[in-house]
Amino acid sequence: MRIFIVHAHHEPTSFNGALTRVATAALRDAGHDVAVSDLYAMGFDPVSDRRNFTTVANAERFRQQDEEAYASEQNGFESVLQGEMDKVAECDLLIFQFPLWWLGLPAILKGWVDRVFAVGRAYGGGRYFGRGVFAGKLAMLSLTVGGGAQAYSSAGMYAPIDAILYPIQHGILGFVGFTVLEPFVVHAPSRIGADARAALLARYRERLLGIAGGREEHQAASWKMMPAV
């Protein structure tokens, strides 16, 4: 199986870093092909504008979707973006690894989505959801949140985690055709001890090996039946 991990945390010794290292080692040891884009280490630029392109469809007025469509036809994306697009196109499973910030993606990862999921490469021409460009591929969120599980429930101060992740799982990954698996969520990693961390890493390792080895049934995450929030 070909797995592509997009890693978005600025500190290599973070628990997000540990999750990516465990995933990469376990999957490669099991014979799978793993590509990792460490966005902070890459110095990935999240700003989406004309810097995305080596082509110009309209020099007078910048309409991003028009430029994306033209670049898709002319192979006119700048080299870093083209490399990221190729990794997405080639993978069987896409994983976003990130900390939940302000109930959403870190800016660097949102910028990656804005730039990489371009018209003509990720959607367009009636290709979305079940008819999406990436239909038949799997995607999963692996993330940490600062608070405990109670805070991210119907009785908590925020909302159930599935509602919080709905814009990412449905509005981004589901829209471009991915079958989105249940997320792997780690609550308050800074407040748990070494044994609990080790147990979580072991559980993540087994979860990924189950997916990659075909032992986990590929059912969509529970957000699938939720109304938009």
What is the global morphology? globular
Relevant CATH superfamily: Flavodoxin domain
Q: What is the count of distinct domains?
A: 1
Radius of gyration over all CA atoms, rounded: 18 Å
Run of helices and strands: EHEHHHEHEHEEH
- Which residues sit in consecutive blocks of at least 5 with pLDDT less than 50? 222-229
- The helix/strand class is alpha/beta
What fraction, in percent, of the residue positions are helical? 25-40%
Percent strand: 5-15%
Here the CATH topology equals Rossmann fold
Q: What assembly state would you assign to the polypeptide chains in this entry?
A: single chain
How many β strands by DSSP? Answer: 6
Tell me the distance between the termini: 34 Å
CATH C-level label: Alpha Beta
Major sheet = 6 strands, parallel
Looking at the overall shape, the CATH architecture is 3-Layer(aba) Sandwich
Count every helix, treating DSSP H or I runs of 4 or more residues as helices. 7
Mean pLDDT across every amino acid position? 93
What is the strand and helix layout of this fold?
Elements: E1 2-7, H1 15-29, E2 33-38, H2 39-42, H3 64-74, H4 79-90, E3 93-99, H5 107-116, E4 138-145, H6 161-174, E5 179-180, E6 184-187, H7 194-212
Parallel strand pairs: 1-2, 1-3, 3-4, 4-5, 4-6
Helix pairs in contact: 1-7
Q: Could you please describe the fold and organization of this structure?
A:
This protein has 229 residues and is α/β, with parallel strands linked by helices. The chain has one domain (2-225): Flavodoxin domain (Rossmann fold), CATH 3.40.50.360. Helices cover 37% and strands 14% of the residues. It has 7 helices and 6 strands, in the order βαβαααβαβαββα. It has helices spanning 15-29, 39-42, 64-74, 79-90, 107-116, 161-174, 194-212; strands at 2-7, 33-38, 93-99, 138-145, 179-180, 184-187. Strands 1, 2, 3, 4, 5 and 6 form a 6-stranded parallel β-sheet that branches. Helix 1 (15-29) crosses helix 7 (194-212). The longest helix is centred in the C-terminal third of the chain and has 19 residues, at 194-212. The protein is globular. It starts with a strand and ends in a 17-residue tail after the last helix.
